[in-house]
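Message: Just now I want nothing more than another pair of eyes on a protein record. I am handing you a single protein, as its sequence and its fold in token form. As I understand it, each token names a local backbone shape. Take your time, and here it is.
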Amino acid sequence: MAGSLGKLAFTLPFGDARTSVELAQRAEQDWGYEAIWMAETAGPDSFTLAGAILQATSTLTLGTAIVPVYNRTPAVLAMSAGTLGQLAPGRFRLGLGSSSHAIIGDWNGVPFEAPVSTVRDSVAIIRQALAGEKTSYDGKRLRSKGLRLGCVPPEPVPIYLAGLREKMLNLAGEVSEGLIINFQPVEAMEQILSAYRAGATAAGRDATGDEIVSRFQLAITDDVPAARNIVRAGFGGYLAQPVYNKFIAWCGFEDEARAIRDGFAKRDREAVGKAIHDELIDRIVILGSVDECREKLAGFVAAGVTTPVLAPLAARKEDALRMLEAFAPGRSG
């Protein structure tokens, strides 16, 4: 029998913005989910959709996992977070990260440079602004002077950071109140949490009670080989991005990371798919029957994840609903 599944949450958006709001309402009212974590790539803007969801629900918490620090200034990020903190006091978590070369450099046309310093400076400025202080900060990458936020939230907005490798994990432990992770094998949890807590300890902070949020691609299926092929087709380019490519190498998949990177550079989809072999997929994605998926998730919770965020691998709304309903917290046991 599987162990605890922690504080189960799920990811949005799914489909269009209206569908996502309706799904959030159903998750809260019918299934008992306590949290939603918003992904942001090329779909709905996280802050706009978050505002709609927070107004359409009454109890669940909502976080961004993540919004990048490059394509919005710290002042704009603080204004967005402050607004959501006023709309739903105590229910919003600001999840920040550096994102990737493709999203920042290619899509937004912003140089993806010095991610650790850029994240550090962003957090410092946002904290000053959300506290109602007049900003006065001059960092290695970013600066702000004289901003006094006109939408200070009545309750503090916690800031969580996404981290993959040691330097960003150290920073997250040092300056944030929670960690967001993705695509890690369970065997890597110890080194991830050690790096995070080392950063907290260096800053004189106790991080043992912090929320550890992890998104999991999930497919409840009796055809695991077909699901693996969906992963290969959908995430080859993702794992070829430098930030994730270096991360899976750091997690022990050095040969696979190299083969994915080389195959992607040559536009050789077959080589990329071959490098993303069954064992790699099974260690970073949750596939199988409901009981098998539950057991795998419980293993991650036992290793330190406090909040598993379910991201259904589903093309149809009906399939996504089936997966989320299967894991409804009231039925998790």
Notes: The domain at 9-219+290-331 is CATH 3.20.20.30 (TIM Barrel).
